[in-house]
Amino acid sequence: MSDQIPLSSDASAVEPELDAARRDHTHEVAPDLAYRRLGIVNVVFVGPAGAGDREWVLIDAGLAGTAGLIRSAAEARFGEASRPAAIVMTHGHFDHVGALEQLAGEWDVPVYAHPLEHPYLNGSAAYPPADPGVGGGLMARLSRLYPTRPVDVGARLAALPEDGSVPFLPGWRWIHTPGHSVGHVSLWREEDRALIVGDAFCTTGQESAYDVAVQQPQMHGPPMYFTIDWDAAEASVRKLAALEPYLALTFHGQPMRGAEMRDALHRLAAGFRTVAVPEKGRYVDAPRRASDGSAYETP
Q1: Calpha distance 188→198 (Å, rounded)
Q2: If 0-12 CB within 10 Å is exposed, 13-18 middle and 19+ buried, where does residue 86 land?
Q3: Most buried of 181, 222, 244, 253 (most Cβ within 10 A)?
Q4: Kind of pairing, strands 86-88 and 111-113?
């Protein structure tokens, strides 16, 4: 089994001139879209540089201990003491909620997520345990140590609107992309065909410490060690490939754009069972789902 789809060195995959680090330590991939890498994960800022207080949105909240880095990047990009209008969560795994409680409190902002993800964000349920036996890399082997307990931002938590709109982000809509988690969402903007993927797929081999460090662009399924429903994960990748995105901004790996990216994404969707799903694993034959409650553990 191969677990990645490499891309050539063609610059259409990643355009460094549009992904150069700014003085605020973000990488701008569109005039109103930037990300900052925080170790093993990215966070995304939606809003043009210089946008004022409550005129931008943060997508996900990184690792524990990174609140200061997120805050400093936000202040450099949007202005001193500038706060987002909201924090939108793709899902609630530990590397996406590490600074959530602190930042949501300091900024006094609402937190939006899919209702199926709420138990992990209001303190009522933990994630199923990781599967350290899949993927074969150091990051996967270490996953038995990754936290699965919930955070609690219940007082600020709200459901993403049923009509698919994203609060405070006109032109964007959310798409339910379960599999990696039951309430996972990705964000899509039709106007420029921009896709904020979350962890529905990655552009690095997240199971491998070497791949995470080097960040060589490659199309890859969701992080294996936390994916609990492979049938749903496959359907989600197919759904996103059908959008024919121009830009894909993932939370693990570099952004990719253009025809080569789309070709690799279609190959991932078509060959998902071979290139993304582990041959054996805790959740390969026994998926965890919201419908029967098996996706929610006692915290």
Answers
A1: 11
A2: buried
A3: 181
A4: parallel
Could you report the per-residue pLDDT of 151-190, keeping only the tens digit for each?
999 999 999 999 999 999 999 999 999 999 999 999 999 9
pTM of the model: 0.91
- Tokens 């490499």: give the residue: 6
Separation between Cα atoms, residue 220 and residue 228, nearest integer Å:
16
Average pLDDT of every residue of the chain: 89
**H helix intervals, 159-294:** 209-214, 230-241, 258-270, 272-275
Place of tokens 């569109």: 30
Q: Are strands 256-257 and 247-250 parallel, antiparallel or unpaired?
A: antiparallel
Distance CA 201, CA 90 (A): 12
- Locate 7 and state its tokens: 């891309």
Coil, strand or helix at 240: helix
Q: Is the Cβ–Cβ distance between 220 and 8 less than 8 Å?
A: no
Secondary structure element (H or E) that encloses residue 195, with its range: strand 194-198
CA distance 48 to 59: 14
| List of E strands, 39-160 | 41-46, 57-59, 86-88, 111-113, 157-159
